[in-house]
Design a protein that fits this description.
The chain is of the alpha/beta class and about 260 residues long. The chain has a single domain (about 5-150, about 185-260), classed as 3-Layer(aba) Sandwich (Rossmann fold), CATH 3.40.50.150. About 40% of the residues lie in helices and about 20% in strands. Strands 1, 2, 3, 4, 5, 6, 7 and 8 form an eight-stranded mixed sheet that branches. The longest helix has 18 residues, at about 20-35. It starts with a helix and ends with a strand. About 35% of the residues are buried. The mean pLDDT is about 95.
Length: about 260
């Protein structure tokens, strides 16, 4: 069992997205998924790294045709347990780096909402992105999620007093980029690194969105909000989540691309 399997076998990802603060990322991502689908009658949807199915199952239950690919068998078992057999969904175990079982130009919307968190070299990230683009129809959309560098430095390194630890382990470059390995589980990027990946594949960027913005800096406050206040927070968040001067400070970003 590798580090990633061990992590997801014991981590409640579903619970994170169902928490009040996790709902911000989920609701934001769903908002842009719906925007990309744009009223298409029968879109073909692919999620690569579907996890426990928070997005794939939701979309399938809304009546969409979905293909869900997931690396971790434990996650697939949870995903499948949510289905009652009426959904038009195909589930399979697979790796974001090799989607050879899927045809070229097959999907109207391809979602890569988790794999980039766990790929540690530019070559791996580019391979995953290239595979996602390959299986997407010309004119179709690719949604890619990333974990961002600066919130980790601000909250983990300084906020939680891990500076000496990460310095001793040589986990920071002189210009404050986080250095990750598979044992660290998560890979952090900056906006310019995302742009470099986009430039290497036949896509144009539609938007780069702050999926949770300032939310994770104030989790306890968000989780304690009543429904009305949380609704106001979401309104504020949606108002500013496309502001490019704030993107790098978001814990998660959503890169919205269109295949040429």
């Amino acid at each position: 069992m590798n580090y990633l399997e061990a992590y997801y076998n014991n981590y409640n990802e579903e619970g994170r997205l169902l928490s009040r603060h996790g709902q911000v990322e989920y609701l934001t991502t769903m908002r842009y998924i719906e925007e990309c689908l744009g009223g298409m009658a029968e879109p073909e949807i692919l999620e690569i790294g579907a996890g426990t199915g928070r997005y794939s199952v939701t979309l399938a239950k809304q009546g969409y045709r979905v293909t869900a690919v997931e690396l971790i068998e434990h996650n697939l078992e949870i995903l499948r347990s949510k289905l009652d057999g009426t959904e038009d969904i195909t589930t399979m175990q697979g790796n974001a780096l090799d989607l050879s079982g899927l045809s070229d130009n097959a999907f109207d919307l391809t979602m890569l909402l988790g794999p980039m968190y766990h790929l540690y070299t530019k070559e791996e990230k580019l391979q995953a992105l290239s595979e996602a683009v390959r299986v997407t129809k010309p004119g179709g959309h690719i949604l890619v999620a990333y974990c961002m560098n600066e919130p980790t430095v601000i909250q983990y390194v300084f906020g939680l007093n891990h500076l000496q630890e990460v310095m001793d382990l040589h986990m920071l470059t002189p210009d404050w980029r986080c250095i990750s390995e598979p044992k660290d589980l998560f890979e952090m990027v900056r906006t310019e690194e995302i742009a470099e990946l986009d430039a290497a594949v036949p896509v144009k960027r539609i938007k780069l969105v702050a999926a949770d913005g300032a939310t994770n800096y104030m989790r306890e406050c968000i989780d304690a909000m009543d429904d009305e206040t949380f609704g106001r927070w979401m309104d504020y968040h949606f108002t500013i989540c496309e502001r490019q001067d704030l993107i790098g400070a978001s814990h998660h970003t959503l890169d919205i691309l269109q295949k040429a």
